[in-house]
Write a structure and sequence with these properties.
Layout: H1 2-9, H2 17-23, E1 34-37, H3 39-45, H4 49-59, E2 66-72, E3 75-80, H5 82-96, E4 109-113, H6 125-143, E5 147-154, H7 159-168, H8 177-180, H9 193-198, H10 201-210, H11 212-227, H12 232-250, E6 258-261, H13 262-267, H14 270-279, E7 284-286, E8 292-295, E9 307-311, H15 319-333, E10 336-342, H16 346-358, E11 366-370, E12 373-374, H17 391-409, H18 415-435, E13 443-444, H19 447-450, H20 458-477, H21 494-516, H22 520-539, H23 549-570
Parallel strand pairs: 4-5, 4-10, 5-6, 10-11, 12-13
Antiparallel strand pairs: 1-3, 2-3, 7-8, 8-9
The protein binds one RNA strand of 77 nucleotides through helix 3, strand 9, helix 15, helix 16 and helix 17.
Length: 578
RNA sequence: GGGCCCGUAGUAUAGCUUGGACAUCACAGAGGCCUCCGGAGCCUCGAACCCGGGUUCGAAUCCCGGCGGGCCCGCCA
């Protein structure tokens, strides 16, 4: 349809195909499905816009699928033939099923690195924004046809994880009182490892700041870790804490394909090789104390001293250096490399780019930056400062509320199923709540909003899915499954047509989300579809319809399919009932 | 001081990349809906583009300058 229109319009003076395509607005409004403003062409042709619009509308040849074309003001509007659009859309949804909206395989390999939180304490809701954006993006890129591998970069030799080992490898009786106090009232047997082992972390961070001898002790441990001389319990602590953190993420359906341990990059010589290449870089400089650096004056970095140190005076490496090694490894395996990073890593991202340039590496990772989730009253969530809301705490509360809801709605459900639904609803609410906002907006955490199951929420979408499922189940019980003939021939009411339009929009929404890495666009679309479905559901009988029954069942089936596809993309569980 | 990001109804948010017709949606507020298939729903109402310039036939969208907020400028990560 679009092609035909473009061809017809291209005869207008001054209008080439590209201009026409760009101006065609598929958003639609009431009464039209496609529209084009003619101001631009009118100016070129030195004609009044309204006159030109009227002339175009009258003169355009008939096009398949277009029921009506008419001018309003300086716009030419096109109305799709509802039957044509419905048939085409429903047929496509039925044929593609779970892959409706997805692109065909591109063969491109993409690495999405996300989360990569230091294994030192549990996830708070600020940290999970990274995980949820990253996980959702990976799902979207897969749907866009790419072969995606997700990676979690585990920093097991940095200062942050060293602190854990530093304190826990000492007998507890020797702990400074202010650190020991962090265990008061807690019970090792009742807490998951990340919560229990992470307890002293904020106090330790504060302690080493004000006690030079402790800082030196910690520094010595860091050096040992980098040399590969880690105390045996170190890896045990890292594994235990990371394991707990991953349990947490699994509660919101986030998993990883691969883990890259920082220590491995050191031990296999990757970091040393990177150092060697940096040592021969064009802007290599040696500092007074023997530290090695790159003079970054010629790069666009907002750094005061204009140099990036990549090897300390004592010969140990720094995060940017190890990240260079890591990225070289990624470039070797993947065609596209995407990093999900908090906004505070922007400078690091630029530094990394400069270092890669220095060693003659032409490729760069793509960065997806996100702003932070702050505390309800404002202020940053900080594990070190102890100002946090744990993901687990939020989920537990959400499950409690969901459980109450399920019990009042469905007292007849067996305990196990009710609990399973509550967990899925809670997880869906939390995931959706965090991913629905554009990544570049800072978010102030609000308990009530995060725990909402209505309106623009995950459960709202899940509910529409469950409703559609229930409807189809009932139809089947009536022995009417065969009635759904996949034809949209009898769909003509406003809510039916609107629903078809929304369904038809999905492929372009998905493609745009993949292109722009705007994961929130999927959340927005999922809500639009659920809302439109609910409107249809409310206003239009399906099972009791006569002639329209088959067509409407086909429409409901298509909605269920596409709602399900969006739930998959967002990482929310499809619930058959809730 | 320098750099990056954000600023849309009471609150929250979409649209901004690619400028077009009455700016999306939710929560809160007011009023309604057992007509059927699930009321985690539906309908109605009121309410917004930070300020000032510029470009343009046309600016929430592009440019410049303010103002307000966040973040960064470590031999931490």
């Amino acid at each position: 349809m679009v092609d035909a229109l473009v061809a017809a319009l291209a005869s207008v003076p001054g209008a080439d195909r590209a201009a026409v395509e760009r101006l065609l607005d598929t958003a639609g409004g009431s009464g039209w499905d496609l529209a084009i403003p003619v101001h631009r062409f009118a100016a070129a042709a030195k004609r009044p816009p309204r006159e030109l619009a009227a002339e175009l509308a009258a003169g355009l040849p008939a096009t398949p699928g277009v029921a009506r074309r008419f001018a309003v003001g300086a716009y030419v509007n096109f109305e799709a033939d509802p039957t044509w659009l419905a048939d085409r859309t429903l047929a496509l949804v039925t044929a593609r099923g779970a892959t409706y909206g997805a692109a065909h395989p591109t063969g491109r390999t993409v690495c999405v690195e996300h989360t990569s939180a230091n294994p030192n304490s549990p996830f708070h809701i600020g940290r999970v924004r990274n995980a949820l954006i990253g996980d959702t993006l990976a799902r979207i890129l897969r749907a866009a046809g790419h072969t995606v591998t997700t990676q979690y970069y585990v920093d097991d030799i940095g200062r942050q994880s060293a602190m854990v080992t530093w304190i826990w490898s000492k007998p507890r009786s020797s702990w400074p009182p202010e650190i020991a106090a962090t265990l008061d009232g807690a019970d090792e047997t009742e807490e998951r490892a990340d919560h229990w082992l992470g307890r002293p972390y904020p106090a330790v961070a504060a302690y080493v700041k004000s006690h030079p001898e402790a800082a030196a002790d910690l520094g010595a441990l860091c050096e040992r870790l980098e040399r590969g001389d880690a105390p045996p319990e170190h890896r045990r602590y890292c594994d235990a804490i990371l394991g707990g953190m991953l349990d947490s993420l699994r509660r919101v359906s986030v998993t990883f394909d691969e883990f890259v341990w920082e220590s491995a990059l050191i031990h296999d010589g990757s970091v040393e090789a990177a150092v060697e290449r940096l040592r021969h870089a064009p802007h290599f400089v040696r500092e007074e104390n023997g530290a090695l650096a790159i003079d970054t004056a010629s790069y666009d970095l907002p750094k005061e001293d204009e140099r990036a140190v990549f090897l300390r005076g004592n010969g140990t490496s720094l995060y940017p250096t190890r990240d260079v090694a890591y990225h070289l490894q990624k470039f070797g395996r993947f065609e596209r490399v995407v990093d999900v990073l908090g906004q505070d890593h922007l400078l690091h991202a630029k530094t990394l780019g400069a270092l890669l340039a220095e060693i003659g590496e032409p490729r760069r990772p793509e960065f997806v930056l996100y702003q932070y989730i702050t505390l309800p009253g404002g202020g940053r969530m900080s594990t070190r400062k102890g100002t946090v809301v744990w993901l687990d705490t939020l989920l537990d509360e959400a499950i409690d509320r969901a459980r109450t809801e399920v019990r009042t709605r469905h007292p007849e459900l067996p305990e196990g199923e009710a609990e399973q639904i509550a967990v899925a609803v809670a997880s869906g609410a939390v995931r959706y709540h965090i991913v629905r906002v554009a990544a570049d907006k800072a978010v102030a955490f609000q308990w009530e909003e995060a725990l909402s199951f209505e309106g623009r929420s995950g459960p709202f979408v899940q509910y529409a899915y469950a409703r559609a499922t229930s409807l189809l189940r009932k139809a089947e019980e009536d022995g009417g499954a065969r009635e759904a003939d996949g034809s949209g021939g009898r769909l003509s009411t406003p809510s039916e047509r609107e629903l078809v339009r929304v369904l038809a929009r999905f492929p372009s929404v998905l493609a745009a989300a993949a292109r722009t890495t705007h994961v929130h666009a999927i959340a927005g679309y999922a809500h639009d579809l659920a809302e439109t479905f609910n409107r249809f559901y409310q206003s239009t009988p399906v099972l009791k319809a006569e002639a329209e029954r088959a067509s409407r069942l086909a429409l409901v089936a298509a909605c269920r399919q596409v709602l399900g596809n969006t739930l998959d993309l967002l990482g929310l569980e499809r619930l058959e009932r809730m």
